[in-house]
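Cross-posted from the bioinformatics board.
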Amino acid sequence: MLIFAKRNLLLYFRDKSAVFFSLLAVFILIALYVFFLGDLIADGVPDFPAKHWLLLSWIIAGVITVTSVTTTLGAFSVMVNDQATNAYKDFCVTPIKQSVLLGGYIISSLSIGFLMCIMTLLVANVMLFATGEPLLSFTQLIQSVGVLFLAVLTAGSMISLLVIFFKTSNAFAAASTLIGTLIGFLTGIYIPIGTLPAYLQSMIQFFPISHIAALLRQILMDAPMTEAFAQAPVEMKESFQLNMGVVFKVNGWQISPLVSVMYLLLTTIIFFILSASVMKYARR
Amino acid sequence: MQTIIEVENVSKSFGQVNAVDDMSFYVTKGSLFSFLGTNGAGKSTVISIILTALQPDSGSVTVNGFTVGKEDEVIRKEIGVVFQESVLDPLLSVQENLEIRAQLYGMAKQDRLAAIQRCADIVDIHSILKRRYGKLSGGQKRRVDIARALLHQPKILLLDEPTTGLDPQSRQQIWKMIGHLQKEHGMTVFLTTHYIEEAANSDFVIVIKEGRIIAKGTPVDLKQQYSADRLFMTTTDHIALRTHFQHDHVQYQEETGGYTIDLPTTIAAIPILTKYQSFISSFEVRKSSLDDVFIRIHDRKGV
């Protein structure tokens, strides 16, 4: 399985333009915030200490969340391409089992997604440094990496169900673009969740990847939030957290990080089981 | 003579289409076997079944004594395949491609390197090992494809239209290699083609149409059985010759600049030539090529 995963990795990184384009979505998002969305959001909230630091951290959390989905999705293109170009035929004449091949595709895609997320995290650090804000602490980095691992796992499980239905590279590329665009809305990272109508808020909270964004925000915004709301009443901080999607409240219950993690793990398991059964059914 | 592939009463249909219809044949060990048919005749389906990629609806297939559907993994080790289209990774080098495929057969590092050297020798690709597969010419790609098929030292080499789309020189080179593999390495070669000329060197040919065998035999047999000679002549006096033909009830076809008459034997041309000698300005007796034979077989047994 690892041998085959290695081949997929080699193939993915050999196509330099594909790697660039899978990161392009991230760069576009960053540019969007820097030139446009960032100001819009900043204008919407009153001035307070550490405002820039806080909002930048919020943005970074969102960007990394989107990255975890788009890059993992991009990495699955190796699998779709193989199916579309008959390369898969050649693997089927070797003694390797199909389940092993599938495992190889998933492992390589998850590794690629994870690697790209780590890179984005480093880019985020550069952004913080460039704008004169404090860098992420070691603990923050370790926690973020942990969340990213979970993010790639969850995203990968959902995507593996999706890719079964794509038979041509073009269809997959079109779907990737669509998903890349939609994911930002589905996870509530373009606009603060508090400004959306209630039914959209519920939708976002239900979508598992949103919990990745929430977890990352909790980690990355912890320090700036403490500074920003040092002088302010507790209610103000709470409403800010809800408004920006740092924490979710469902039916008056505040979702704890542990619940978010459990929810993500559950999603991962359900989707992997689903994809495995669909794959089995499709082969018959 | 030992048989290495045995196909017995195999049928396979896709929905309403009978791709293979109750087909039986066998391939002798060490022979060069050609499977001939136009596009859509069912060649690929039969190949896929032998390769264990498809299961037959009914009938049985054994490869070197192992049954398709039961001992697929062993069969896959016995067969090396060259697909019609390129299936290796264009972005990776030839060496990388071969190494990855060798790994999929579970070979250890030392064995892999030895296998690549051995196969590179056979198809003469040492000079292009470091180049990207996608950048190679059609003929070079084909040679690499053959090397890939030979990596795990299979007993049977299966080639699906190996020379389609190649220039004449590469085509000849590939045929030389295939012949060499059969004679020097004792491999059984099973190939499909829609050019009967390419089947001329085979030990045995099977012609299929719409999933059924419509002719089989050695290329010489087929030629003798289905070939026909034709007499072609030109004339300066068209009207007179035509009148004579019609008067004598001779079956003739008009062709550019002359007339052709189908002959039962080559000798049969002599009386005709003698009879119409005064009208004929030139003539030739045309032996039918294998291509003609193929078209004849195909039309005669038409459903």
